[in-house]
Amino acid sequence: MQSFFRRGWWKPWNWSTRTWVLAIVIAPLISPLVTRWFCLWQVPDVALPFDVNSVIRPAITADQDAFVRYLSAAQSAGRQSGGWSEVSMRHAVDHYGSDWDDRLDQWLIGNAQALAEYRAAGEMEQAGGPSLKTADFTTILTVHNDFRNLARLAATEAIRFERSGNLEAAWQMHRANLNCARHAEKPGFAICGLISIVVRSFACHGIKRWAEDPLLSADRLQQARSEVSMSFSQRTSLVDIAKAEYLTLKNTLSRHDAPNQLYPNWNVGGSSEPLLLVGKRFLLWSVGQPELTLRIARQLLVNNADQIDKPRRFRRKAVRTKEQTVFELDPNARRTWGQLDPAALNRTLEATVSKHWLKNASIYSGNYMDVSRQQDDARHAALDVALASQQYQRIHGEFPESIDQLVPKFLDSVPIDPMDAASTPLRYRRESDGTAVVWSVGIDGIDDGGDVELKDVKDVIDKDTGYRIRLKRRPQTESP
User: Fold this and answer.
1) CA 207/CA 178 separation, integer angstroms
2) Is the pLDDT of residue 327 over 70?
């Protein structure tokens, strides 16, 4: 060793021409290995915190698959468009009782087959969808694209029944939407969960309106509350959705054209694209991709697994970035081998190229899915109070002055606002005209005093989440 330093072989300026040539040849070959090692070294590998085989559901036959019936319903409805657009249907639903277009009655009668298929699909036990063994972020869920229109169609049909006093038939339409929401999220993808929440919002809004009919008894309203609660209890957990998202991400990164899928601007097209794709994959491999992204995804799963399904008030403190949430660790729990602490995981999310992969590939997961589920919880809590208030009205002739009057006969306790970081009770107010309003602070966390009337898409974020509670007079029309 002393001889090595004494001769100065380690000094580049002492190298011979042969040594320099050898170094120049070897450096480009070694540098990708060195940079890959350095990138992966920053993020320790952790074991996947679930059994893949337990997440992948077995395939089911077509005659048992509710999606086959839903597709049939969508195709049947498509043949009966009758000139009605989505905007026209939304207008009819939102202005029920004041601006109902009688031409809708005939159009809905023409869609009887589609609605019958929709109801039948909802009563089926199983719903399939793409297998998580092969599904990636390019997988097309054809049926899911139609669920919104089918749910709006069922909600419009429910109004037709309500207008004629056929309340049980109307309830079956609302029940069909609840069932559709349950089926929609079965494949497990986050986008399926979000579509399920949209369909469930149609059901909740329609059930709130259905409950305003004075002919409904307190007992019938209680039955409806039980069915709604059962439907919400059957939702796919956020942990299971996160597991499905991980498997989908892994499948996406295994595609031969993964760089183009996650970096769309990289796809230049043309005859040279296959050759360029090889270069892109090598470049990404040299910076640790796609393994680095999968390591970070596993770190997020390990961090979030025991917290994400808890109500907001019971979770540990978290750092919420734009796309993801990182929870503080339980000081009394044993940390998984290789698990990063929250600060290190946040730095990794912000500092590595993986944040672009995670952002583009998991656009529907992370915070977006979490906040949407919290709003779904708030919508259910508000609907339950609205139905309980209608029960109270049938017995006492007026809505309660406060939620406290619903406890304990109609509610076990005053519900906590799922979207309020301060864990305050759900808000409620009886108006001077005898109506009432129940609300959560909504996505923005700001109490707008019960402003729950949605007039624009952005109102979902800016306004409170809840319902105005009233009784209505039913228009007298012919029975369907």
Assistant:
1) 10
2) yes
**Rounded alpha-carbon distances, angstroms, from residue 363 to 184, 187, 206, 254:** 19, 17, 30, 18
Query: What average pLDDT does range 381-392 have in this prediction?
Result: 97
The type of residue at 290 is P
Rounded distance, CA 418 to CA 53, Å?
33
3-state secondary structure of 457: coil
What is each CA distance from 78 to 118, 146, 159, 375, in whole angstroms?
13, 10, 20, 31
Average pLDDT, integer, range 442-451: 87
Q: Output the DSSP codes for 278-310.
A: HHHHHHHHHTTTTHHHHHHHHHHHHHHTTTTTS
Is the model more confident about 320 or about 396? 396
CA–CA gap between residue 281 and residue 372 (Å, rounded)? 35
Q: Minimum mean pLDDT among 5-14, 174-183, 403-412: which range?
A: 5-14
DSSP code of residue 466: E
Residues 16 and 303 sit within 8 Å (Cβ to Cβ): no
- 327 vs 299, 331, 356, 371, 422, CA distance in Å? 11, 12, 21, 15, 17
Phi-psi domain of 347 (left: phi exceeds 0; alpha: psi -120 through 50; beta: other) = alpha
Q: How far apart are the first and last CA of the chain?
A: 98
